[in-house]
């Protein structure tokens, strides 16, 4: 018997100018539904962002449609694969921003930092005059990051402007190298730094995912795994599935060591949230976990759990 083909997972974004994003929603959702593609796509006046999964031909059809949208002809996609469906449903949502920074005057189409190819990234971050900044959230950084990178310890991307302004004097006059999961947060954060008067700003083109895809492990400066916003939870070099799972109580990644903790109970609690939940809440999580297991036993998808984007 022929083994089933892996599911294609396509992470994408494009800053573009959509005068009426609401008009784009229904046709986009329609083609995704027709093709059996699942995932989440965000539309805003500043462009499109999201991750979708499905058969290779189905993903090609959706991407062809997206490339017909204004300013999206040059859309780039970061491909990976999954053995099991990483999403349970298809959502197309209208947003104020495709990645929320909360700085309405920042326009990446007006200028961002210098793009750095994955093959050239190591040389930049190893320079003694380079300050490397991880623009992702604290729980993502805990899963993995580049050696020596600054962790701003932000809970959400909208905290980043405040962090920068609190450390402006330390960063003035330095060469700044920034990175994020797929590149979108860096396009906005480097545009923000330039608007704040920092000129020598660089960012990793294609983000961590492109770096892990293209740079051999023996040459890599990446440590750990890369958190992703789907049911895979994390990926490693070559975009192979990682070792982290997801706590379905708090939606945070859980490492193999954390799963050995007495505070960890699958589907119910983990060391990060155990003390923040009472017995009634844990009982509710236990029932939800039981329903998930029953659905899996029937071969059905349970759609009650989602991954927080915080």
Overview of the molecule:
The structure is a single chain. By secondary structure, the chain is of the alpha/beta class. It is 29% helix and 22% strand. It is built from 9 helices and 15 strands. The protein has a 5-stranded mixed β-sheet with strand order 4-1-3-2-5, covered by helices on one side. The chain has a 4-stranded parallel β-sheet with strand order 6-10-9-7. Residues 304-310 have low confidence and may be disordered.
Structure, briefly:
The chain is α/β, with parallel strands linked by helices and 310 residues long.
Strand order of the largest sheet: 4-1-3-2-5
Main β-sheet description: 5 strands, mixed
Structural class: alpha/beta
Number of helical segments?
9
How many angstroms does the end-to-end distance come to? Answer: 42 Å
Average pLDDT figure: 91
Helix content: 25-40%
Low-confidence stretches: 304-310
Q: What are the secondary-structure elements, in order, as H or E?
A: EHEEHEEEHEHEHHEHEHEEEEEH
Q: Could you tell me the strand content as a percent range?
A: 15-25%
Q: How would you sum up the global shape? A: globular
Rg, please?
20 Å
Give the tally of β-strands: 15
